[in-house]
């Protein structure tokens, strides 16, 4: 090798600034920035590969709605996904009318937009908070959430496990607060205290069009105080923020929860444009207009900015906590865990799944 060539090589080496780091496992890791590469490598193409794979496989998203009857749960979910994904139950059948317990009801749909397929499951909880005595009405809901973790765990522990484990875990629970303008009721506190530990809860003020601007602001502040003083965990939780950038973004969300929302399944003409809205005697409440209500903030959080994070938090935090507890309980005896009957009362057969795929 000539002197000229050796010189060129050493110059190149000098240009490539290698930061050698000692990792915890004792290996040295070099960090080479994009500007330091000799030329285009093509690593970023992995994003296209991931995109293609996700588009081909699709993804699951499971959302649960909880709140008293008539608060607009079905309407809101239909507004969120701009389709009839949840049936409105204005005329409950006889059996539902006399039902003394909370019954869970899951309905799945595949929604496709620009080639991306999402299998959306909406879990409705008719009967919640509708009885004179609402003691323990959260129990079937807690059982359902845990039952989905258990199902996933068993699939994971299976020797011949599936390449892709079907995910029925609840990624998000929208809790509907009536727009009373007062404060959180004991049932709200009890429910969120219990469920906040096992699932991501997003509280919303339902039918917010019934509140004045001042009432809405005061109600929101009171709810935030009640949540803090009762140590209730709602999504996004501060301790799960991954970096300062995420913390900044989530702080802004935390400062404005619970979102005061309005739902509708009707479109109206406003200035020549079709908008989703509720027509009243004094005008049209435009559901997606941030000057009218906070529906758009909720939609952005659940679908446009935090959908993947909701799935990640479910898997990495809530499911992980369940998994560790169950494996500790069964003393790492996997086969015993797989063979034993489920410890949960609320069998999956009690929840109806209508697949319209
Ligand atoms: N004013 C107002 N009415 C609403 C709103 N959302 C829904 N409604 C109306 O409230 C009624 C009940 O709505 P649903 O969506 O069926 O309520 P739900 O909570 O699903 O009721 P259940 O399925 O019986 O538990 C319907 O007449 C809706 O048109 C809202 O944001 N504001
Ligand atoms: Mg409904």
Entry keywords:
Rossmann fold, seven-stranded mixed beta sheet, three-stranded antiparallel beta sheet, 38% helix, binds guanosine-5'-triphosphate, binds magnesium ion, Septin-type G domain-containing protein
Outline the fold blueprint.
Layout (H helix, E strand, L loop, with lengths): L2 H13 L3 E4 L5 E4 L14 H12 L1 E8 L6 H8 L13 H5 L6 E9 L2 E9 L14 H19 L14 E6 L8 H10 L5 E5 L7 H17 L14 H13 L2 E2 L6 E4 L2 E8 L2 E4 L8 H11 L1 H23 L4 H6 L12 E4 L2
Parallel strand pairs: 3-5, 3-6, 4-12, 6-7, 7-8
Antiparallel strand pairs: 1-2, 4-5, 9-10, 10-11
Helix pairs in contact: 9-10
Bound molecules: guanosine-5'-triphosphate and magnesium ion.
Describe the fold and architecture.
The protein is 38% helix and 19% strand. It is of the alpha/beta class. The chain has a single domain, classed as 3-Layer(aba) Sandwich (Rossmann fold), CATH 3.40.50. The strands form three sheets. Strands 8-7-6-3-5-4-12 form a seven-stranded mixed beta sheet, with helices on both faces. Strands 9-10-11 form a three-stranded antiparallel beta sheet, with no helix packed on it. It is globular and about 85 Å long. It starts with a helix and ends with a strand. The relative contact order is 0.12. The protein binds guanosine-5'-triphosphate and magnesium ion. Magnesium ion (MG) binds at residues 73-74, 88-89, 124.
Summed up, what is this model?
This protein is α/β, with parallel strands linked by helices and 357 residues long. The protein contains eleven helices and twelve strands. The chain has one domain: 3-Layer(aba) Sandwich (Rossmann fold).
């Amino acid at each position: 090798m000539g002197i000229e060539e050796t010189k060129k090589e050493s110059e190149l080496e000098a240009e490539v600034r290698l930061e050698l780091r000692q990792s915890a496992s004792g290996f040295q890791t070099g960090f080479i920035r994009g500007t330091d590469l000799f030329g285009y490598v093509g690593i970023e193409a992995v994003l296209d590969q991931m995109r293609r794979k996700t588009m081909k496989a699709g993804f699951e998203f499971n959302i649960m709605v909880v709140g008293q009857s008539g608060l607009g749960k079905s309407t809101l979910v239909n507004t969120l996904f701009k389709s009839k994904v949840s049936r409105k139950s204005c005329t409950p059948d006889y059996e539902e009318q006399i039902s003394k317990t909370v019954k869970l009801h899951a309905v799945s749909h595949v929604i496709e937009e620009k080639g991306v397929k999402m299998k959306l499951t909406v879990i409705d909880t008719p009967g919640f908070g509708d009885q004179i005595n609402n003691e323990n009405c959260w129990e079937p809901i807690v059982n359902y959430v845990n039952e989905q973790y258990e199902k996933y765990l068993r699939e994971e522990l299976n020797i011949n496990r599936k390449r892709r484990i079907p995910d029925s875990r609840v990624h998000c629970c929208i809790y509907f607060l009536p727009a009373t303008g007062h404060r959180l009721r004991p049932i709200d506190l009890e429910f969120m205290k219990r469920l906040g530990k096992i699932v991501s809860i997003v509280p919303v003020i339902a039918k917010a069009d019934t509140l004045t601007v001042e009432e809405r602001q005061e109600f929101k502040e009171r709810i935030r105080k009640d949540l803090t003083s009762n140590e209730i965990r709602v999504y996004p939780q501060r301790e799960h923020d991954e970096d300062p950038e995420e913390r900044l973004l989530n702080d802004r969300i935390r400062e404005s929860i619970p979102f005061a929302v309005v739902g509708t399944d009707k479109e109206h003409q406003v200035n020549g444009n079709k908008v989703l809205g509720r027509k009243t005697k004094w005008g049209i409440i435009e559901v997606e207009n941030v000057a009218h209500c906070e529906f758009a903030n909720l939609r952005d959080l659940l679908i446009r900015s935090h959908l993947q994070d909701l799935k990640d938090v479910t898997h990495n935090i809530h499911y992980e906590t369940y998994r560790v507890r169950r494996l500790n309980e069964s003393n790492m005896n996997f086969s015993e865990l797989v063979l034993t009957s489920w410890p949960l009362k609320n069998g999956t057969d009690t929840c109806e799944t209508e697949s319209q795929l």
